[in-house]
Design goal:
Blueprint (H helix, E strand, L loop, with lengths): L1 H37 L2 H14 L3 H13 L3 H8 L9 H13 L3 H15 L2 H13 L3 H14 L5 E4 L6 E4 H16 L5 H14 L4 H11 L5 H4 L1
Antiparallel strand pairs: 1-2
Length: 232
């Protein structure tokens, strides 16, 4: 009899806990929707964190990581979903890992995630990221590969933002690819490819005359050309 009593008590307690848990889940789901409506990023983060504790979900973890990413909290984003490459990674997880790692200066570790995104989407913006990362890693063959893929696919309406000046600016993505192409060409042979690189920079500046990065690169390379007096 006593055993039956304890069993009933346990079942009742378990049911009460389950009901309480369900109530909390409903509460934080409603709280999450309200925070989204109000545009309260920290509130959204708090709601998703509670929901992940109460009712774990990979999709919800990916969403939380994406919210962290958009809020500039790259370490927190990676801590939420990890940095391992998984075949089961969602599109959101791939983007979070790629962008967060690159933003933290871990460009080589970001590379496989950008590549996976490009293989799935053939996105020209991602092709630019891959070309730039490979150039920075001195993987010039890979960098050239993605420059060529990007130039073959890019549309005149697409843009690329740069942030090296006090005021960020956007140029044509095609011009940005020509700028990268020039840097790749120069790095392939710094002694013989100056003129070829300058021609590519001229292509970029023909599209975007106010392209600051291309203008600076052109000035730097022009200073390496032998003067007329030296030639004579």
């Amino acid at each position: 009899m006593k055993n039956i009593f304890y069993l009933l008590l346990f079942c009742f307690s378990f049911s009460a806990v389950a009901q309480n848990n369900d109530a909390l889940v409903k509460h934080y789901e409603a709280y999450y929707k309200q925070m989204k409506t109000q545009g309260d990023v920290q509130g959204v983060i708090n709601a998703l964190t509670h929901l992940n504790v109460l009712k774990p979900s990979q999709a919800r973890k990916d969403t939380l990581a994406y919210v962290y990413l958009n809020d500039g909290k790259f370490t927190q984003a990676l801590n939420t979903i990890g940095i391992e490459f998984k075949s089961s990674d969602s599109d959101i997880a791939l983007e979070v890992k790629a962008v967060a790692l690159k933003s933290l200066g871990e460009i080589e570790r970001s590379l496989p995630f950008y590549k996976a995104i490009y293989d799935k989407s053939q996105n020209t913006q991602v092709a630019y990221e891959l070309a730039e990362i490979n150039l920075n890693l001195n993987k010039l063959i890979e960098a050239k590969k993605y420059v060529d893929l990007g130039l073959a696919q890019v549309k005149d309406t697409q843009g690329k933002s740069f942030y090296e000046t006090q005021q960020p600016y956007t140029v044509s993505l095609k011009a940005a690819f020509y700028y990268l192409d020039a840097l790749v060409k120069f790095n392939q042979n710094k002694e013989t490819n100056v003129n070829a690189a300058l021609l590519l920079l001229d292509k970029a500046l023909a599209i975007e005359p106010n392209f600051n990065m291309a203008f600076l690169a052109k000035n730097a390379l022009s200073s390496q050309q032998p003067s007329t007096e030296t030639k004579n």
